[in-house]
Design brief:
- The protein is built from 19 helices and 11 strands.
- The chain is of the alpha+beta class.
- It is globular.
- 47% of the residues are buried.
Length: 645
Amino acid sequence: MTPATSAPANAKPAETKPKSRNPWLWVPSLYFSEGIPYVIVMTMSVVMYKRLGISNTDIALYTSWLYLPWVIKPLWSPFVDITRTKRFWIVAMQFLVSLGLAMVAFSVRGSAFFKWSLFLFWIMAFASSTHDIAADGFYMLSLSKHEQAWWVGLRSTFYRTAMIVGSGLLVVLAGVLESKNGLPPLEIPVQAKASAPLIAKWDPTEVKLAAQDGELRVIAQPSPLEIGLAERSAEEAKAVITQAKVWNRQHGFVAEDNPAPAKGGAKSASWWSSHVSGPFGNFLASRFPKALSNQAAPVAAAGNLGVIYLSLSKEPPAGRDIAVNFGRKPHGIEYIGLGKSDKGFRLQEGERFVFNSMNWNQPAMAVIQLDPKLKSDTGVTFLTSSGNIPVAWSITLFFVAALFLAFSCWHSIMLPRPAADGPVLTHNSLVGEFFATLGSFFQKPGVGLAMAFILLYRFDEAQLVKVISPFLIDTRAAGGLGLTTSQVGVAYGTFGILALTCGGLLGGFAAAKYGLKRMLPIMVCSMYLPKLAFVFLSWTQPGNFLITCGAVAAEQFGYGFGFTAFMLYMLLFADGPHKTAHFAICTGFMALGMMIPGMWSGWVADLVGYRRFFVWVICSALPGLTIALLVNQRVDPEFGKKSSH
């Protein structure tokens, strides 16, 4: 959003601009390109860092800092007005975003990828927020009032489309590349047979492995695997699963979270960690210990188990980690959760292994357990898929970089050249104008309550959004749902964003018909109550992918519906002589309200586990709910209704 602009004294009216273009040639692409960098920096980066082994604590903390350019963009929006044209800033910032994406694509394949990619995302965030200022100003300069009103809904639609592409389709693309750019897939038949021998114990040290000729590939022993139709005691089953977990971690097959390196070495401790985060973290860990996942405690009548040993055929290149995903091979509609996806076979340990030059010739243990209700001979196929994860994300980022280079070239040709698009000249100095506008904002009646509302209305959502993707990706043993990267893109980035868009559209229609004052309490409830969906997911850990998609969509629909009230209230509060600049200040506080809670969310989730974290998210909505009800008492009953326009 840009501050209010005024044309130079000698400028021609916008209607007589020397060059004009059909808005269909530039408005859709302009607002699509406005949404892509934001969703890449704030959403796709979370999935990428999780797949690259960064801890939840560091993901939430460091990616939350990337909100800062959107928080402070009102501070440099006057410079966009007084220097060059909005058209210049749009084209230049799109080129800068393209360059930044290409450099991130290079950085993710290096050893210090986390530090350098964060720095480059930071530059991209500044370029994107500057692009937002210029794009909104150019929109108002290039279109008449009637055209602005007609296009306002469509431009939001193309912005939402960018959200779907960035957090959905691009994540799916990265997931597909993760599984396609590595070793050949290996199918392993697994059969439940009444005639199969019962194995008393498994000893991975007795598995014989040796280097083999030919291309690098995954080796499985035994293949096929036969599991006898029998029951074991819960203690026996738990012992085998625990044995496999310990063995896999001892030999480095399970990648531990990769925290950002601390400055000054491991012994250094800041005042904050010594006196605040450390003691508070110990308090949370002791009072609210992590709950065990549903998979950690087998039922009393446990089904029989089988173990598959996975290894590599020869030593991989030095310094290269090869991630191998292992799971039941889906068929057709099973991928979206329909049908009996397990058919009585459950993978209790071994969803993902990491092989390298140190452990390639050691056997990784994958434990498959039968459903105790399974009484007849049957069989399924398990499948290994592997890939170079940094390369997959590098290719994806290069693709988006090329897309933005194309946007920059397209808009350098197709954007109109309105006569009013030039440096804005005022009678006051820049510093004087800035402080006068800023001061008038804080002199508005009820500014304290309004700021509290803007900062706290999304207090719960700010914490939730940073943990959703890690929760969906984490293994079931760690309390997550164990989804693949592509499934996260489908569930959160596609179903979720579509539901978010539908909720936003319905919220706009409802507010236009009934007004903000009547709809605010309903919209507040729609913001908070659907978050119970993640409490349900974390406590039940459903195996049906369609249930997960439905729960994510329900939460996102409620958020989209409730967010309408938030935007309308900011429009109401910002109304006045400096409404454009004041709205930009409101959006800055809005971003601040998302940045600060997001910084500690991953840390809290790591300490108390996903189950208790999502319960805490529900409880943290109470301050926002209280302030929203107080704010509603001051809202004009007619505000937002169509009849009031």
